[in-house]
TrEMBL record:
It comes from Salana multivorans. InterPro entries: DNA_glyclase_Znf_dom_DNA_BS, FPG_cat, FPG_N, H2TH_FPG, Ribosomal_uS13-like_H2TH, Znf_DNA_glyclase/AP_lyase, Znf_FPG/IleRS. This is Formamidopyrimidine-DNA glycosylase. It catalyses: 2'-deoxyribonucleotide-(2'-deoxyribose 5'-phosphate)-2'-deoxyribonucleotide-DNA = a 3'-end 2'-deoxyribonucleotide-(2,3-dehydro-2,3-deoxyribose 5'-phosphate)-DNA + a 5'-end 5'-phospho-2'-deoxyribonucleoside-DNA + H(+); Hydrolysis of DNA containing ring-opened 7-methylguanine residues, releasing 2,6-diamino-4-hydroxy-5-(N-methyl)formamidopyrimidine. It holds the Pfam family zf-FPG_IleRS. Residues 253-287 form the FPG-type domain. GO terms for biological process: base-excision repair.
């Protein structure tokens, strides 16, 4: 799933290429991806892109009034969340805008969900692999009309030192720190991968309870949150959209590296599996050398 660093880079990529461009056509290939009906998505045609923003893991494209060449303030926002298997595929030269309309609205021959064309011939596809379709697209007058955006927690990149905000967010309830970091209502933009990386850098167990964290552990967690995310953003910034997934994988110390050596201590990276995801960690760095129980398999990882 794209997380804060990749979505930040993606928003910057789109901002550079689309601000000042007019939308000339749009096609919805998967009607289930469209979560709003008023105004209809066809209303974005003839509108100029005024800005692109990131809200947590959401990208919002600001659109000026139709036909207005001078507008700098958006009248509507096209917001999308790529979910677990979604992505944006940019094309410098799009296929003819009449081609997709040969298929009935709402039916897709593949992963295509939404296609957008711009006046210079470029454009993008929003796609989603797999059978569990969760990609979400909204067209609203205000981004805060999108409930998951309106309820986002604090953004770790919006502050120089996230220590105070992080302590406040995690102190609102007593839960496992891994789950708290992934809760978008507490901290915006962090998902499964970067929560693993942050906890490894902070030398904390993913199962540590937020209510039991000491001041020193909170300091380490805040520092790790800042450094891991900033390093990932720096590694992603300026890359084409097609390269962002690979850049994310290459930057991981423990996430997705089960069975490999921890880059800090050399111990093996271990995994705990759940029904729909898994987490990775280093026992030496994070849990005092004790492997965590794999609750799905009902055994200790070795």
């Amino acid at each position: 799933m794209p997380e804060l660093p990749e979505v930040e880079a993606l928003a910057g990529f789109l901002r550079e290429r689309t601000v000042g461009r007019f939308v000339v056509a749009v096609h919805v290939a998967a009607i289930g991806a469209l979560k709003t009906v008023q105004p209809p998505l066809e209303e974005i045609t003839g509108r100029c892109v005024t800005d692109v923003e990131r809200h947590g893991k959401w990208v919002s494209i600001g659109l000026g009034p139709r036909g207005d060449l001078t507008a700098t303030e958006p009248e509507e926002w096209l917001s999308f969340h790529l979910a677990k298997a979604g992505w944006l595929r940019w094309r410098e030269e799009m296929p003819a805008s009449t081609a997709p309309r040969s298929r009935p609205l709402g039916r897709s021959a593949g992963p295509l969900a939404v296609r957008v064309w711009f006046d210079d011939g470029s454009g993008f596809d929003l796609t989603e692999a797999g059978t569990r379709k969760r990609l979400a697209v909204h067209l609203t007058r205000d981004v805060r009309e999108v409930e998951p955006i309106a309820t986002l927690g604090f953004d770790p990149l919006a502050v120089d030192d996230p220590r105070e905000q992080l302590a406040s967010a995690l102190g609102s309830r007593n839960q496992q720190v891994k789950g708290a970091l992934r809760d978008q209502r507490l901290v915006a933009g962090i998902g499964n991968a970067y929560s693993d990386e942050i906890l490894h850098a902070a030398r904390l167990s993913p199962f540590a309870l937020t209510g039991s964290l000491t001041d020193e552990e909170l300091d380490r967690l805040a520092e790790a949150t800042r450094e891991v995310l900033r390093a990932a953003v720096a590694a992603s910034t300026g890359r084409p959209a097609a390269e962002l997934k690979d850049a994310k994988r290459r930057g991981m110390a423990v996430h997705g590296r089960t069975g490999q050596a921890c880059p800090v201590c050399g111990d093996v990276v271990r995994e705990v599996s759940f029904s729909d995801r898994s987490l990775q960690y280093c026992a030496t760095c994070q849990t005092g050398g004790k492997p965590l129980a794999d609750r799905r398999m009902s055994r200790l990882l070795r």
